[in-house]
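Please, structure for the following, as tokens.
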Amino acid sequence: MFKGISENQLQRPAPAAPHNLHLFGESRDSSHPQDTGILIVGHGSRRAEANEDVHEAARRIAARGGFALVQAAFLEIEHPNVAEGFLRLLERGAREIIVHPYFLSPGRHTRGDLPREVSQIAALHPEVSYRITEPLSAHRLVIEAAIERIYETKAPRSVNDPATSERGKVYLVGAGPGDPGLLTVRAAEVLKSCDSVLYDYLVEPQILRLAPAGAERIGVGKVGGGRCTPQSQINQMLIERARAGNCVVRLKGGDPFLFGRGGEEARALRDAGIPFEVVPGVTSALAVPAYAGIPLTHRDYSSSVAVVSGAHAGDGACNAPALSAVAHADTVVILMGLANLKEIVANLITLNRSADTPVAVIRLGTYESQQTVTGTLRSIASEVERAGLRAPAVIVIGEVVRLREGLRWFAEELPFLSEAEAACAAA
């Protein structure tokens, strides 16, 4: 049985007492199983010194962690690639492989390219299990080290420094669905002149680079597994920074006022007397279906669209009351609903929506690693399970999904096909 579980967090060992600390390069007695292989995956570069950094990191991880089987590999350009590195560990006796993305982007690479490549090679070796660690870029100690470096080099901003944004003000900014090219001009303007950015977990890292080098960057969004910064704490952070005279950007995926809690933040700012501006963003509810070749309205198929959350804000359960209210819209777009997909389709069928209604589930929409699976209300849950799709994903329900086959324009990578798509490809 294939036992791969990608993007799982590894259980962290309890920190050692200070007198037991080891320096890099020192070995320590290993309590790790000798058949556990560690695959350290770097991006890959045409610069030999960049690739050597990954090899050196692998050597130090082996020595410092007491791992017997450690192998460096690369996503692009350099060898060994991910499949080759995986096989080398198997040849050395590994029967469990832990894949560690070494400073890879938490966007396309660690949520798209790496899990896909690992799952493809692992599928050929069902006797081997694997796990993928969370990317380092989200780790608390990495963030703290980055902040330390920033403060070491940050120069005071001149009070006469011209900027397009006001100090002592908060901008509630939509970052769009993922592709940095879909960021609005106004969003880019305020980012380029801000003092602080409080950003959601799914915001594309390239967008954060628009902020000045000395700007404070704070991740406050939900991370896989449900860990998140409480909304009350986010509100207080915005208020405190604005009162200190800073230009503050609250950067949210999609649009800040569509399931982004922007309304709550705006009310908190207004109650505190803090000036704010809302910068709308391109919502995934519109952009992701478009990138999958699905028009949400069409003269022949749909003249009404409903956008609904697929989960209750409190407990994450299926949002049955909202589904009941929109079940008969021509097109239904569901955000944050993948975990409840089986319950969603069962509810819609119970509400007399035809079981043959077309459905599309689009993962990582607008990214290069976008994946789309289609089916019907009757079949889509099993199709998605077969394909191994994970969040984030947008669900589109309605006759307009039938138009995808003729209107697909975005060059998706398609490692997975639904049964209907596989039949079309074979014809």
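Residues 18-136 form a domain with the Rossmann fold fold (CATH 3.40.50.1400). The first strand starts at residue 36 and ends at 42.
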